[in-house]
Amino acid sequence: MPRNENKKHVGFATHITAGGMAGAMEALCCQPLDTIKVRMQLSRSGRAPGTKPRGFIATGAMIVRRETPLALYKGLGAVLSGIVPKMAIRFASFETYQSWLADKATGKTSVGNIFIAGLAAGTTEAVAVVCPMEVVKIRLQAQQHSLADPMEMPRYRNAAHAVYTIVREEGATTLYRGVGLTALRQATNQGANFTTYQELKRLAHKYQPELAELPSYQHMVIGLISGAMGPFSNAPVDTIKTRLQKATYEPGISAFQKVAAIAKDMWKQEGFRSFYKGITPRVLRVAPGQAIVFAVYERVRAIIERLNVSPSQDHYTE
User: Which backbone phi and psi does 156 adopt, to 5 degrees?
Assistant: First the structure.
């Protein structure tokens, strides 16, 4: 049975439900890796001659030792609060852009146009949700206070307090600091992610024509591979973005000047390798995260379709 011939429509409510559940599961499983990645990117270790930057395991161990294991989940509130709209926008916008770019005669979308749809979907989610969410998340993750000591009060108590403080002290536009870099990162992430996922899924169906739907473990393997594509393609952008969003507002300095200053300082003080700081935990977080997202999304979507919750028709496959 061809996989796209009788595909039921995946409506917006299904995108919200399936995408939200998938994103929440990803965040709960992978947040510690993201916290370690952010700390590695913000770290100035390795600047002194003859020294090496602190590694992935050493950074994680230091956080646990100084701040307790719960510190690995700093910023989780900001992530969870943005996951549902982020995933809804990602899947719904990708499907919309893909349908616009599909061949009018056959209804099929070429590989190149799938990549363009992924770029557009990544840009959309970056502007709508991801940039403000990450500014808050990074501010929370950058705080090196011990959660075991109630007397040690952090600057930002939680996600809501961080938003309030940032807006009051630095202005609402601070939540969109680094939006260009965030959009570039998300665009390349989703362009590579969706293109790889769709092509590998199509290949899997080609060699297993008897399967109407792939089993969850295959969705996870394909998602794992597709999820690793983005981090390797845009690691320098992500590192500069993280440092930009952690920095406080400086009057009279444009975003471009700040980005250039950060990149110049990194190159001069820490060398080329500094642009790839945090690449190990980022790949370890993003790749399994995408495996979880696609597997959960496909499973929840299939359940909703069987329950006829979404009655309209859609040809979205990923």
Answer: -115, 120
Using CA atoms, how far residue 314 sits from 13, 24, 304, in Å, is 12, 24, 13
* Predicted model pTM: 0.74
pLDDT, tens only, 82-127: 877 888 889 888 988 998 999 988 888 999 999 999 999 999 999 9
- pLDDT value of position 174: 92
Please work out, in degrees rounded to the nearest 5, the angle formed at the alpha carbon of residue 10 by the alpha carbons of 9 and 14: 145
What whole-number distance in Å separates Cα of residue 78 and Cα of residue 162? 9
- Residue 305's Cα: distance from chain center in Å? 27
With 0-12 / 13-18 / 19 or more C-beta atoms within 10 angstroms meaning exposed / middle / buried, residue 264 is exposed
- Indicate the DSSP class of residue 111: H
Q: How confident is the model at residue 300 (pLDDT cuts 50, 70, 90)?
A: confident
Phi, psi (rounded to 5 degrees) for 208: -135, 60
Is the separation of the CB atoms in 158 and 77 below 8 Å? yes
Q: Interhelix angle for 76-101 vs 159-170, to 10°?
A: 80
Q: Which of 133, 126, 32 is nearest to 81 (CA)?
A: 133
What's the CA gap between 52 and 94, in Å, rounded? 41
Report the 10 Å Cβ neighbour count for 141. Answer: 29
User: How far does the chain reach from its first CA to its final CA, in angstroms?
Assistant: 18
- Give me the chain's average pLDDT, please: 85
Which residues have a Cβ under 8 Å from the Cβ of 6 and sit 6 or more positions away? none
Q: Give the C-alpha separation, 135 to 16, whole Å.
A: 23
Identify the H or E element spanning 216.
helix 216-246
